[in-house]
Write a structure and sequence with these properties.
The chain has 309 residues and is an all-alpha fold. The protein has one domain: Rhopdopsin 7-helix transmembrane proteins. It has 12 helices and 3 strands. The protein has a 3-stranded mixed beta sheet with strand order 2-1-3. Helix 2 packs antiparallel against helix 3, helix 5 packs antiparallel against helix 7 and helix 7 packs antiparallel against helix 9. The chain is globular and about 65 Å long.
Length: 309
């Protein structure tokens, strides 16, 4: 009976970004602005792709899904952080913590898989341009998107089910602004060996394997571009994947920063800063990267925005 009562905790405490009450209004304004920019920027990308028949291509189909993922990904953490700052509350219920954890991991995984699929799309476009529309047909695109969703759902659900088996007692303070899986597992007073093993396994499935696929695709792309004789041809070929390469570098660079900061240091401040780059800054910058580096999207966005003025 005592064991059962210990597992039925009602809430966790999110320590948040800062203990300094004078800094909190500034942080609230800053992250509210960043969230709105992320939301509006990615929404404009989606609307631009839907509204322009010239953008009804596999590359833009996956980009619209990536933009949707970034909106929801950021929405799993930032609104709760803003609400806690506004209400000066640090509490999050046990159920809401698990829900936040589930959707956070789901959309992190989906981001990974979508970036991998987009790398494969660029590989086909550059290395097999004559067969691009045949290979990247609507059926394959739909299947790749469905597989990405199913794998992400399975992984995140498995993690949450494993957390449900843990016993929590004593200190329930999470030194973060959201319910981070690793931080929550560390609070458990029961054996977490299986949970740790699962986290390492999932890191390989969701992180290492997709990154390997991206690197393999780009190695083929580079070799294919080097065989192009003219400098103009090389530039044109590389420009079609420049935006995606920038987003991949930003996503995996900040993701690696989060992993290394949590694995090599006990400094929660460093881990929080790395997580902010990963969860807030990267989704905010993605629309700018694609709109500034892609002439088709830039042109469509200009027409779309022009309709409101």
């Amino acid at each position: 009976m005592e064991q059962e009562n210990q597992t039925r905790i009602s809430e966790f405490i999110l320590l948040g970004l800062s203990e300094d009450t004078e800094v909190l209004p500034l942080l609230y304004g800053l992250f509210l602005m960043m969230y709105l920019v992320t939301f509006i920027g990615n929404l404009l990308i989606i609307l631009a792709i839907i509204s322009d028949s010239h953008l009804q291509m596999p590359m833009y189909f996956f980009l619209s899904n990536l933009s949707f993922t970034d909106i929801v990904f950021t929405s799993t953490t930032v609104p709760k952080m803003l609400m806690n700052i506004q209400t000066e509350s640090k509490n999050i219920t046990y159920e809401n913590c698990l829900t936040q954890m589930y959707f956070f991991m789901l959309f992190v995984g989906l981001d990974n898989f979508l970036l991998t699929v987009m790398a494969y799309d660029r590989f086909v476009a550059i290395c097999h341009p004559l067969h691009y529309m045949i290979i990247m047909n609507p059926q394959l695109c739909g299947l790749l998107l469905l597989a990405s969703w199913l794998l992400s759902i399975l992984v995140s659900l498995l993690h949450v089910l494993m957390v449900l088996q843990l016993t929590f007692c004593g200190d329930l303070e999470i030194p973060h602004f959201y319910c981070d899986l690793n931080q929550v597992v560390q609070l458990a007073c029961s054996d977490v060996y299986i949970n740790d093993l699962l986290m390492y396994f999932v890191t390989v499935i969701v992180g290492v394997i997709p990154l390997t696929g991206i690197l393999f695709s780009y190695s083929k792309i580079v070799f294919s571009i080097l065989r192009i004789s003219s400098a103009a041809g090389k530039y044109k070929a590389f420009s079609t994947c420049g935006s995606h390469l920038s987003v991949v570098s930003l996503f995996y660079g900040t993701g690696l920063g989060v992993y290394l900061s949590s694995a090599t240091t006990q400094n929660s401040r460093a881990s929080i800063i790395a997580s902010l780059m990963y969860t807030v800054v990267t989704p905010m910058l993605n629309p700018f990267i694609y709109s500034l580096r892609n002439k088709d999207i830039k042109h469509t966005l200009q027409k779309l925005i022009g309709k409101f003025y």
